Sequence to fold (155 residues):
Amino acid sequence: MPEPLHRQTIAAWAGDFLDTAAFHSLPAPAKEYAEEILPAFLAKACEVRDVAPADIEEADLKPALLDGVGALALPASVRAHVPELCAAFLGELETQGRLGGGRALGRFVRALRAAYDERTAETTKPIRNPGARIGRNDPCPCGSGRKFKRCCMRR
Fold:
């Protein structure tokens, strides 16, 4: 958990972003949940290495997006816009002189879209066995030299 001063800074930065032109150009679903998403995103980024909000780096952003924001219960219509919202936030922080390299960090967050979509997908991918199935008359994989049906199939 970030220090109280960092939490106040994060809340102030997120609140200031809500009054910018960059925020108003975002889609409506993203705007509705921005007050919840942005502080969670930046707080998790600070928590990764226990740094101040102005000192976050690329390494802090992946866990912030995937674990911090990815754990929030958001509607699917909002989840589609989260990486863009976070990227716009970082870019605006650079414009305001609060975060060095914010636009580059924003591009990195946009590049994490596929990983974020996979992490927050409502359905999981089926697990596929990469190997071929063992037939009844194949040699047993335990190495006994017997047929599978006479050895380990019944266990």
